[in-house]
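Many groups now describe folds with learned vocabularies. In that spirit, our science desk offers one protein's residues alongside their backbone shape tokens.
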Amino acid sequence: MQLVDIVDDTLLFCDDSAFYTSASPSSIKYFADYAADLLRRFPEESRQVLEIASNDGTLRKHLKEAGKSG
């Protein structure tokens, strides 16, 4: 499930902090590898994923992309 409500970034982050997972090369690689590992470990055709505490859906994106190729 994903909320359709979009919260303004100024309410979520203070002025001097704007961390987005997709802006961190090491986080992108980590979640890409993690998604591939999850899909190897749980190869069922029907999958449901609950991603908690993601600020921009990076893990979900990698799961979707890896699921298409695997």
Observations:
- The mean pLDDT is 77.
